[in-house]
Amino acid sequence: MKRVLLLGGTGDALAIARALPDAHVYSLAGLGRVPADLACAVRVGGFGGIDGLVRYLCDEKIALVVDATHPYAAQMSRHAHEACAIARVALWAVRRPAWQPQPGDDWREASDWRAIVERIAAFHRPLFTLGREPLAHLHEIPASQYWTIRCLDAHPGNARAKIVDARGPFDLDGERALFDAARIDVVISKNSGGRATEAKLAVARERGLPVVMLARPALPAADRIFDDAASARDALLQWLGQTHTSET
C-alpha cells in the first residue's frame, strides 16, 4: 500500500491533509492547534533528527513524503531531503512563491536577528510578525521602542511589549485597526508568501511604512515541487489512484 507522510504546520498542508484517507499521516511539530476533523492520522512532535526520520519512514513503510512546512522551516526541509535520500523514499515539496515588492513598497532585507535590530533602530513602534523569535529578546527592547509582537502563542509580554496571539488569515480592515491601535511605524516580516498574512504589506504600502523583510533560507531540492496546495493535492490524489472533486 502507498503510504504518505505529510509534513505540515501551514494552511497549505492542512488543505492537503483534508484530502488524505485514514491510512496516511499528517505530521505537526507541535505548535498551534491540532486539527480534529481529519480522516488521516495526526502525529505531533519531532522525529529525532535525520536518523529518527529514516527509522520512521522505514518502520511505517512510507512511500512518499510531502514537505508542506513553512518556507522558513529550513531544518525540517533539509532533514526530510536527507532522510528520503537514505531511505529511498520519494520527496515532494510545496514551495509557495515569495512575495514581491510592489510600487510604493519600502522593503529592507535582513539576513538574521542582528540585522533586523539594526534596521529598526531608528523606529519606535515596530510590529513583529516573525512568530516566536522576538519573545526571546523581550529583555533587549531599547528604551525608545515599544514592540507589538504577533504570534500564535499567548504570552504576557512586559512593560515595553504587547503580545498579540492571533492566527491568519488577516484582512485589510483588521490590519488597519491594529496599525492604528499600536501606532505602528515599521513592520518586520518573514517573506512567507501566500494570501493569509499579506494584508499587513498592503497596509504598510498605504501608509508609506518600511517593511524589514527577513530573507528566505535556501531549501533543498525535491523530486517534484509545487507552487500551491491545490496542485500538490491533486497530484497526490492522482498518485494514490483516487479522484477528487474540487470545492466550489
From TrEMBL:
Please give the PANTHER family that the UniProt record associates with this protein. Answer: COBALT-PRECORRIN-6A REDUCTASE
**InterPro entries per record:** Precorrin-6x_reduct (IPR003723)
Query: What protein name applies here?
Result: Cobalt-precorrin-6x reductase
Pfam family name, one? CbiJ
Pathway annotation: Cofactor biosynthesis; adenosylcobalamin biosynthesis
Give GO BP annotations, semicolon-separated: cobalamin biosynthetic process
Please provide the record's keywords in A-Z order: Cobalamin biosynthesis, Oxidoreductase
Q: Any idea which GO molecular function terms this record carries?
A: precorrin-6A reductase activity
